Amino acid sequence: MPTLGSLNAELAPIAEDVSARVSDIFEQCPHLAGFTVQDVSALPESVRPQGVEEGLAVTDLAIYPLVSREQCQTIYESLSLALLELICDRPGAKEFLPGRTFARSVH
What we know:
Layout: H1 14-28, E1 32-39, E2 56-63, H2 69-89, H3 93-96, E3 100-103
Helix pairs in contact: 1-2
């Protein structure tokens, strides 16, 4: 009996796709040095976003060199939107991302 192919054979494995998308994020945000993605339920109550009980949160946002508060907010919003788009495009990323830290590679 022939082996059935994957319905999503044209998609890269999650790890490769996440790596490519995160590289794009760092390219679009030159001041972004790194960040961590965590499951909201794993965060201490004192640092959870108010009224949010489940989902993912970007934490440990590192920006260098320092920028204004407004620029920092713009970077955070761009990062959050890019991760949301990734999760919408690749639902498996929602399970892959929590607990991972991403850092800009310096050559």
